[in-house]
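Entry:
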Amino acid sequence: MENAVFVKKAKKAVVDYFNSQADSTDKNGKITEDNVFVVWLCKTLQNNKALLSTTVSDGMYYEITFNGDKNEMYFDAYKKWKNFALEV
């Protein structure tokens, strides 16, 4: 799948998921594709993968994968719990 087409579908998937989970009293309200951005994107052979986030500061990020062999897309939603430095 072309990267531009994949990114458009991935952003739509994040918007649809976020808006379906948002409470009607949530101060963030609903989002649009303008609120979704790509953090990382990769295309290898017929497969695509992207990590996306939103302008909502809720600690969520989303992983969308396209399996070109099966013509399927997979959606994973993650919550960032911690971020700290480790001694090396």
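The radius of gyration is 14 Å.
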